[in-house]
Amino acid sequence: VALGVLRGRTARLFAKAKYKPFYMHGTSHWLGRDVHDVGRYQDLNGKARAFEPGMVTTVEPGLYFDVRDRRVPAPLRGIGIRIEDDVLVTKDGTRVLSAACPKSVRMLRDACADHPSRPTP
After folding, report:
1. Structural domain tally of the chain?
2. Residues in Cβ contact with 118 at an 8 Å cutoff, skipping those fewer than 6 apart
3. Residue 106 sits in a domain of what CATH number?
4. DSSP code of 20?
5. 74 within some domain
6. What pLDDT was estimated at residue 119?
């Protein structure tokens, strides 16, 4: 709504899944040795599986705007962004493993810039 891609009340747009053309995947997945770790989201009875200490999951909302989509303001067409956090489940709660990664527009621009004060990996 703030970007001008959708118009209306956020709750109503969400209830009607108007975001779907721009958000075509889920919000998370298990994280393991092979990135998209395998593992069931439900137990054998179909009941939601509880998190256990040692599990790692992602939280990765993303938006993708097709370059040909005329519903999208021209400056946003052809842009996609997904910012991921990796979350470790501990016996006492959770720990965001990616907490130090850039998230704001400014931090992302700085991270991507050819800046002399940033070491080259």
Report:
1. 1
2. 110, 111
3. 3.90.230.10
4. G
5. yes
6. 53
Please give the Cα distance from 26 to 77 (Å, whole number): 22
- Single-letter amino acid, residue 110: D
What's the CA gap between 36 and 109, in Å, rounded?
A: 27
Distance CA(38)–CA(36), nearest Å, equals 6
Q: Give the residue numbers spanning the domain of 47.
A: 21-112
- Reply yes or no on whether the pLDDT at 66 is more than 80: yes
Give a yes or no: residue 1 inside a domain: no
Decide which of 93 and 40 is more confident: 93
35 — pLDDT class (breaks 50, 70, 90): low
Residue 98 lies in a domain: yes
Residue 42 lies in a domain: yes
**How far apart, in Å, are the Cα atoms of 72 and each of 60, 75, 108?**
22, 8, 23
Instruction: State the Cα–Cα distance between residues 27 and 49, nearest whole angstrom.
Output: 16
